[in-house]
Write a structure and sequence with these properties.
This protein is α+β, with helices and mostly antiparallel strands and about 800 residues long. About 20% of the residues lie in helices and about 35% in strands. Helix 1 runs antiparallel to helix 2 and helix 4 packs parallel to helix 6.
């Protein structure tokens, strides 16, 4: 208990005794506030300030330069932090802040290059000599180059290395040395190539014992191998003419992996993998067009972990080699590191990687991915170098001293932080709660925010209640309804959204403490953005009605247009039918007129002979011809009289059993007189007198008349016309051949087209109207027959008609 004038007392309830805890300085006469720091320590605010009180020995130890008053207060928040409310300020004392032990070893302004532990001796290589620190005796010894031949070769010591026998080697900028600890002297080694064209050949960067007494050396003149037992060297250097040679002569670090390959890191040319079996160097460099290439060509360290993974630290990213694809997986700040500059790496006893970077050290677990970053705020006051000792402890070195820690005993802050909203802003102006405000309650307790459609630019601020290194608190957030995944926000405590569509959203945020411990229950805020009037439900109802009306009118219009189009099509169809009917009528009259022409000619010529016959005797044969052709005219007239009937019956065939020989003879006799007049030999040949066929007599008669008429027209005087009728097994053929002028071969089937006339013959007096052969082909084919011709110009033409036997066509 504390008193105002008498100081601090401890009361023992068992013996009812008070024990005074005096400061022995006559200053702290009062104890105004008190709280327990831990089981052995109290924190007391007195008139002299704030003090740690050791309950065991009663020792007072002042806490900084903090003034205390009687109104001051001491509070332990249970998370390892003591809060001291003094006269001028609120002070935080964090007992969990420092996780590492720091050993001050000031070597400034020297620059630390390499570090290793040999027993209790800590060796530290610098650019101004080699230090040896005795960690037990707290003594220091510096080895520098002097005129003594046993001194180190150079003060520029780049790398120190322990071989398999425990001997210390030092790579310097003037050769490499082996330390003889029994005689406290350095044994010097140098090598100059016989090529004599290398600069800085004495500069050695790294040393690696690949086999007993076989040392591989990284130099500024390529890769050299020193065989200690024979004192011989082997030299690999860059050869521009050999693509399989080493990529660069400026080598900085070496590693032999579990497969026997030697990895070689350069400063500017990436990494080489050397296969001793083939002697080939495989090159890996940065390529901005290949995402899986090496992240940077400046290589700081190459390391193989216990799982046989190869790790490469570069000036811009940590690379993991993927042998199955011969490529790299890259880790960087995007993965959770605080820096992209990776210096070196070691592995602890449980498989975690510890990597020192430009800002501190990071604990890295690849699977599952976990990264915890430590810096000066955690007690990492030196981190240029990293080294793992045989006992599992890790050393971080620099020019200010050494940080030592056991990875298994690093105590992390396991307090799960809570998250609270601290501000809600619209267009960068804080919103105050109210009836007409987006917030009905203060933002810290509000669960919903209501925004108009024109208030769709808003910001949310939040905070994690972790006071141990609060600057290292990290945040993830997600706006459900907009974001598909969680967004990492680092230590930024503000998020802004712009131009969101009207709707309902839920903003969620989680946080981690300084050691990466995340809370699992997010803090959430529902955000409702109301739509404008033209996007409300009743507006959409009106839109639906209007659209439905437009669709209905369109369908009505389309039906009317379809009906009108149908009516137009019907009218067009009827017009086409009427046109077709007119054409049929015209064709019919044209065909009949053509048929009139031939009988009239055959009637007129015999009558002319009767009228102008000097003997004035009546020739009965001529009258017979007149009779037959008169009958022919009568038949044609009958066709005209029955035209309407022909229309209604669609000019159907009238099939009957006809003696085709008699029909051919009758037509033949009609042309006998005309043949005599023109001195043409007309013949009719038939092997039989009776050959019955089921045909349309009238149309077949027209066919024969047309063929004989054409033959008469185009057969010259003293020519010959022959009509032959013959019978085959299934067909009957009629051939009409003449010795006329013939038909040109290029005419072809056009001869049977309506109104077609051969150009050479159309101009003669014998030319017709081009209808006869059209009727021939039409009438024959309608009776399931065929008509074809064979002609030679100047020799004549033969038409062949083939008709089927039987009563069905």
């Amino acid at each position: 208990m504390g008193t105002y004038w008498s100081g601090l007392f401890c009361f023992n309830p068992k013996n009812q005794q008070y024990t005074r805890f005096s400061s022995h300085d006559n200053i702290n006469v009062g104890a105004f506030s008190i709280d327990k720091a831990n089981d052995s320590t109290l924190v007391v605010g007195s008139n002299g300030g704030f003090y740690f009180i050791n309950k065991g020995n009663g020792q007072w130890r002042k806490i900084g330069d903090i003034n205390s008053t009687a109104d001051g207060y001491v509070y332990n928040d249970g998370a390892g932090i003591m809060w001291l409310c003094g006269k001028d300020a609120l002070t935080k004392v964090d007992f969990t802040q420092y996780k590492f032990r720091f050993i001050p070893l000031s070597i400034a302004p020297r620059e630390a290059k390499s570090m290793l532990l040999q027993g209790n001796m800590l060796w530290l290589a610098t650019n101004e000599g080699l230090y040896k620190f005795d960690l037990l005796k707290k003594t220091t010894k510096l080895y520098q180059h002097t005129n003594n031949p046993s001194s180190i070769s150079s003060n520029q010591v780049g790398k120190i290395y322990l071989d398999n026998e425990g001997a210390l080697w030092a790579a310097t900028e003037n050769g490499f040395d082996k330390f003889d600890s029994s005689n406290n002297r350095f044994i010097h080694h140098f090598h100059h190539s016989a090529l004599s064209n290398f600069f800085n050949e004495d500069v050695f960067r790294d040393i690696l014992e690949v086999r007993p007494h076989e040392y591989w050396l990284a130099t500024d003149a390529g890769l050299k191998i020193y065989y200690e037992e024979t004192r011989q060297f082997k030299h690999y250097y860059n050869d521009d003419r050999n693509l399989n040679s080493i990529a660069s002569n400026h080598i900085y670090n070496l590693l032999k992996d579990s497969k026997g390959n030697v990895w070689i890191g350069t400063s500017g040319n990436g990494v080489d993998r050397f296969d001793p079996k083939t002697g080939i160097f495989h090159h890996y460099t940065y390529n901005d067009k290949i995402a899986s290439s090496l992240s940077n060509n400046i290589v700081h360290c190459i390391f193989e972990d216990s799982k046989k993974n190869i790790w490469i630290c570069t000036a811009d990213g940590l690379n993991k080699y993927a042998p199955e694809t011969d490529s790299f997986i890259i880790y960087s700040r995007k993965s959770g590191f605080v820096s992209n500059v990776f210096n070196s790496v070691v592995e602890d006893e449980v498989g975690n990687l510890w990597i020192n970077s430009a800002t501190g050290v990071s604990k890295f677990t690849p699977q599952p991915l976990s990264i915890i970053n430590f810096d000066e705020g955690d007690g990492v006051f030196s981190h240029s170098l990293i080294y793992k000792a045989a006992d599992g402890q890790i050393y971080l070195g620099g020019n200010s001293g050494v940080v030592v820690f056991d990875p298994s005993k690093i105590k992390l802050n396991d307090k799960i932080p809570e998250v609270y909203f601290t501000d809600f802003q619209v267009f960068n102006k804080s919103v105050k709660p109210g009836a007409d405000s987006p917030l009905k309650r203060p933002v810290g307790t509000a669960d919903t925010a209501f925004l108009n459609y024109d208030q769709n630019v808003f910001s949310i601020e939040f905070v994690s209640l972790n006071y141990t290194h609060p600057e290292k608190n990290s945040y993830r957030y997600k706006l459900e309804g907009f974001d598909e995944k969680w967004n990492f926000n680092g230590n930024q405590r503000r998020v802004t959204y712009t131009n969101l569509n009207p709707g309902t959203y839920r903003f969620k945020v989680i946080a981690s403490n300084n050691d990466g411990i995340w809370n699992k229950t997010p803090k959430s805020l529902i955000i409702i953005i109301s739509p404008p009037w033209y996007r409300t439900w009743w507006a959409y109802t009106i839109y639906t009605i209007i659209i439905g009306g437009v669709i209905y009118l369109y369908l009505l219009y389309r039906d009317r247009q379809a009906k009108l189009k149908y009516e137009i099509q019907i009218a067009h169809y009827e017009s086409e039918k009427e046109k077709e009917l007119s054409e049929r009528k015209l064709a019919f009259f044209t065909n009949i007129s053509h048929e009139f022409r031939t009988p009239l000619t055959l009637i007129i010529n015999p009558i002319k002979e009767l009228l102008y016959n000097e003997k004035k005797a009546v020739d009965t044969s001529n009258l017979t011809i007149v009779y037959r052709n008169a009958r022919r005219l009568l038949g044609l007239v009958d066709q005209l009289l029955l035209f309407k009937k022909a229309e209604s019956e669609s000019d159907q065939l009238r099939i009957s059993n006809v003696n085709i020989i008699d029909l051919c003879r009758e037509v033949y006799l009609c042309f006998v007189h005309e043949a005599k007049r023109k001195h043409i030999q007309l013949e009719f040949i038939s092997p039989t007198d009776c050959l019955n066929v089921y045909i349309d007599r009238e149309k077949t008669e027209i066919v024969l008349f047309n063929l004989l008429s054409n033959a008469m027209k185009f057969t010259p005087k003293l020519g010959r016309i022959r009509v032959c009728a013959g019978e085959f097994e299934q067909t009957v053929s009629i051939i009409v051949e003449d010795t006329g002028c013939g038909i040109p071969p290029e005419v072809g089937e056009r001869l049977f087209s309506r109104f077609y006339q051969v150009s050479d013959l159309a101009s003669t007096s014998n030319g017709g109207f081009g209808l006869g052969l059209y009727l021939v082909k039409n009438f024959v084919e309608r009776q399931a027959g065929t008509v074809e011709y064979h002609s030679e110009a100047g020799k004549g033409t033969a038409f062949t008609i083939t008709l089927k036997k039987g009563n069905r066509i």
